[in-house]
Amino acid sequence: MRKLQSLVAAAVAATLLAGCGGGNPSPGESGAASSAPGAGSADTLVVYTNSNGEGRGDWVTKKAGEAGFNIEIVGAGGADATNKLIAEKNNPIADVAFGLNNMYFSQVKAEDVLEPYKPAWAGDVDTSLADGETYWPLVKQAILLGYNSDKFSKDTGPQDWTDLWTKDEFKARYERVTGLGTATAQLVFAGILTRYRDDSGDLGISDEGWKQVEQYFQNGSPAVAKTDLFARIASGEVDMGQMPSSIIAEREKSFKVNVDTATPSVGVPLAVEQIALVKGTKKKEQAQNFIDWFGSAEVQGEFAKQFNSMPVNKGAQAQANPEVVDFFADLKQQDIDWDFVQENMGAWVEKIELEYMT
Question: Where is the signal peptide, in residue numbers (predicted)?
Fold first, then answer.
């Protein structure tokens, strides 16, 4: 996993979930949002996404403009973007949504917010990574536990999330979240809680599982608003925390720190970012053309090269950083029952925020 240090930015999260950071949207998820939704002209496509950080939104806007599209990016964390799409279903503002993972898009689909559309590039992707009807896969991602490798070696660093609150050397040295509105944060907890599944337990989780959550919050250093985790690592305030693989190399360069990642024996959650057409858009043909353009091998290949992502489009993978391709080839995916997660995530979040996030 040390090879992540040489990536300019790898890619992250769980085939059905995706999650991120503290009280603020994670760098890989929301970045700088555009102006108020609907602020564009009648010809402007409004695009909701949780994947516009790290310059992605600006890059997509610029490239789309060159291709003849006038788009307005509206960024929000994964859970927040999902709730926004559902809340607006009777009067949709967005024309297209991308970046959300399967779990989020399945929620949106269940609320009849999406319109079926088969992109021109549908035959170039593994349709088992999506529903093959309303939302389609773009990029693979993974949520990782990263730590300062100048302070900890592969042997002395944390091997799994549970090490953070069960081993004294890591207590108070990791950043813990202060909000669960992002996909990354939810993914981290999905990966932890599903290890303690107990159908007779509270919300399907054993008492021991909820004890792990309690210990996570009691022993961690709360995320600081508007302060990047890597800045805190660089200052020595903390040594570790959750991070999408896609941000690691760029953050290492920007904050002059070196990071390695834990390799839990159970594997890591893996996520697939998707794209979909919003039902009720008044710019349907334009939105479909945008989806065809953005998910194409050419554009996804350029995107992969620029942001070191792992594209799902087979034709784009040749342009991806070879180390990113190797990383995902070697990565062990955690076996998670995402139907179980989807059924319970809302209640888990509510319980965590009310009982543990103090």
Answer: 1-18
| Number of neighbours of residue 156 by Cβ within 10 angstroms | 10
What is the CATH number that goes with domain 143-266+336-352?
Answer: 3.40.190.10
**DSSP per residue, 123-178:** GGS-GGGS-SSSEEEEEEEEEEEEEETTT--TTTS-SSTTHHHHSTTTTTSBEE-S
Name the nearest CA neighbour of 30 among 5, 56, 11: 56
CA 139 to chain centre: 10
> In the chain, where are the structural domains located?
10-141+269-330, 143-266+336-352
Residue 347, pLDDT score: 96
Please count the other Cβ atoms lying within 10 Å of the Cβ belonging to residue 30.
Answer: 28
pTM for the predicted model, two decimal places? 0.75
pLDDT in tens, 100-145: 998 899 889 999 999 999 999 999 999 888 898 999 999 988 889 9
Task: From 102, 56, 57, select the one nearest 82 (Cα to Cα).
Answer: 102
Q: What's the confidence (pLDDT) of residue 78?
A: 87
* Secondary-structure class of domain 10-141+269-330 per CATH: alpha beta
The beta strand positions in the chain, using DSSP E, are 13-14, 45-49, 71-75, 96-98, 114-115, 135-148, 175-176, 197-202, 205, 221-222, 240-244, 259-261, 270-278, 310-311
Distance CA 334, CA 317 (A): 23
CA distance 295 to 277: 13
53-101 confidence digits (pLDDT tens)? 889 999 999 999 999 999 999 999 888 999 999 999 999 999 999 999 9
Q: At residue 160, does pLDDT exceed 70?
A: yes
DSSP letter string over 211-252? HHHHHHHHHSEEP-TT--HHHHHHHTS--EEEEEGGGHHHHH
